[in-house]
From TrEMBL:
<feature type="domain" description="Cytochrome b561">
    <location>
        <begin position="16"/>
        <end position="218"/>
    </location>
</feature>
<feature type="region of interest" description="Disordered">
    <location>
        <begin position="199"/>
        <end position="218"/>
    </location>
</feature>
<feature type="transmembrane region" description="Helical">
    <location>
        <begin position="90"/>
        <end position="110"/>
    </location>
</feature>
<keyword id="KW-0249">Electron transport</keyword>
<dbReference type="GO" id="GO:0016020">
    <property type="term" value="C:membrane"/>
</dbReference>
<keyword id="KW-0479">Metal-binding</keyword>
<dbReference type="Pfam" id="PF03188">
    <property type="entry name" value="Cytochrom_B561"/>
</dbReference>
<feature type="transmembrane region" description="Helical">
    <location>
        <begin position="51"/>
        <end position="78"/>
    </location>
</feature>
<feature type="transmembrane region" description="Helical">
    <location>
        <begin position="130"/>
        <end position="149"/>
    </location>
</feature>
<keyword id="KW-0813">Transport</keyword>
<dbReference type="InterPro" id="IPR006593">
    <property type="entry name" value="Cyt_b561/ferric_Rdtase_TM"/>
</dbReference>
<keyword id="KW-0408">Iron</keyword>
<protein>
    <recommendedName>
        <fullName>ascorbate ferrireductase (transmembrane)</fullName>
        <ecNumber>7.2.1.3</ecNumber>
    </recommendedName>
</protein>
<keyword id="KW-0472">Membrane</keyword>
<keyword id="KW-0812">Transmembrane</keyword>
<dbReference type="GO" id="GO:0046872">
    <property type="term" value="F:metal ion binding"/>
</dbReference>
<dbReference type="InterPro" id="IPR045150">
    <property type="entry name" value="CYB561D1/2"/>
</dbReference>
Length: 218
């Protein structure tokens, strides 16, 4: 009996430590999301085509989608005390608004290239960006039946419905963040943020021609 009680106590301690670790990671995640989004908003604030592209996609992907995903986690600091139903509603609202921001931001990027007669989606940043937008749209379409999975159980199994939505939603976010990372190394972002390392070719081209705040991010 003593051995069983000790085992139960050890398991309880491990679970408590695990929950604490998850909350610490969750807190760190919020700090990273808000810091990154805040910095991108600060350096890209403006009404030009590329400023709006960076601003909308950063807020859409990094902040709204990032927060919309973790809101469903039981360890989430600002929503863990809410009911599952309330968190589900917060989830789809944040994801929907984030998707709209990202799609409109991508449209501004397309428009920026069109103004300069440059090829669309020819870079890794642009290609992963448009793939992510496509996945976002599909995930959003599948999100509606996933929201009413219980009522549609006679038409499609809830587990299949939710699995498809979760899989595509996760894929769209991951690919979108890959596009974000490649976007941080574009010429437009390097001109906005002096902290981003510049390669020799970029530095040379900038010495020969003065930078403009609304140049293409290529």
């Amino acid at each position: 009996m003593a051995t069983d009680e000790t085992s139960v106590e050890n398991t309880s301690v491990l679970l408590s430590l695990w929950n604490v670790a998850l909350k610490v990671l969750n807190f760190g995640n919020h700090i990273l999301l808000f810091t990154l989004a805040g910095y991108l908003i600060y350096i890209s604030w403006g009404t030009g085509v590329w400023s709006l592209h960076v601003l909308l996609c950063s807020v859409g992907y990094v902040l709204l989608m990032g927060e919309g995903i973790v809101v469903l986690a039981g360890e989430n600091l600002w929503s863990g005390f809410l009911s599952r139903r309330v968190n589900s509603h917060i989830h789809w609202v944040l994801l929907l608004v984030g998707s709209v921001f990202s799609i409109v931001g991508t449209a501004y990027g397309y428009h920026g290239n069109a103004l300069r007669n440059r090829p669309h989606f020819s870079s890794t940043h642009g290609l992963t960006g448009i793939i992510s937008v496509g996945l976002v749209i599909i995930a959003a379409v599948l999100g509606l039946p996933a929201l009413f999975a219980g009522k549609l159980r006679n038409i499609i199994k809830p587990i299949i419905n939710k699995f498809s939505h979760n899989l595509l939603g996760t894929a769209s976010f991951v690919v979108g963040m890959v596009s974000q990372c490649y976007g941080y190394n574009t010429g437009f972002m390097r001109r906005l943020s002096p902290e981003i390392p510049r390669d020799w070719h970029t530095s040379r081209s900038q010495r020969s021609s003065p930078p403009t705040s609304e140049s293409s991010p290529r």
